[in-house]
Amino acid sequence: MTEGAERKPARVVVADDQTVVREGIVMLLGLLPGIEVVGAAGDGEEAVRLVAEVAPDVVLMDLRMPRCDGVEATRRIRAEYPGTQVVVLTTYADDESLFPALAAGARGYLTKDADGEEIVRAVHSVLSGDAGLSPSIQRRVLERLAETEARPATPPEAPDGLTVRETEVLLLIAEGLSNQEIGRKLHVSTATVKTHINNLFAKTGLKDRAQAVRYAYGKGLVRPPAG
Fold this sequence. Notes:
Layout: H1 3-6, E1 10-15, H2 19-30, E2 35-41, H3 44-54, E3 58-61, H4 70-80, E4 85-90, H5 95-104, E5 108-111, H6 116-127, E6 132-133, H7 135-150, H8 164-174, H9 179-186, H10 190-204, H11 209-218
Parallel strand pairs: 1-2, 1-3, 3-4, 4-5, 5-6
Helix pairs in contact: 3-4, 4-5, 8-10, 8-11, 9-10
């Protein structure tokens, strides 16, 4: 008996707010072996409700959706219905999308250029207790782990209500990096960097990068070079 014949089809709910995309994914899954589509949702609220009704094995979850986004829906599903796994299927592969989704409990993460075989493999991987990550996502997760291990064990405490990411951006400003360089360093877009800078400036009352550098030194986040 082959591996595919030994296991029951995975019961899957598809959640995506774009009707054409959602129907296309449902149609594709209907052609794939080992998959049974048991519902489709147009937003996170509907996805949570469907999970309660049909108890699927896996939800294929888009991230950017109205009412309740994919991260919040994932968090609720994993907390309330732990028998259902979540595989993110999204257009976005940036850190600001990836890591919150994984932290919310997603066991798989694919981008929408994944083919049917990759989707089937990810679905069955998470049902077997493994991670269902595309190769590019696996690399990014490993890079983040390496970056985390390279950081000091006790990073400086963020002042004035700054988030961890805002503090990271502040430290990179203090190192003299441009917005583009910060974006490359943190694997986010320049627009995202600008948003973080605007937020940290608003929280601290800073007006420009020179003030930000002085602020970082003044708060002890950065130490002057020895000598």
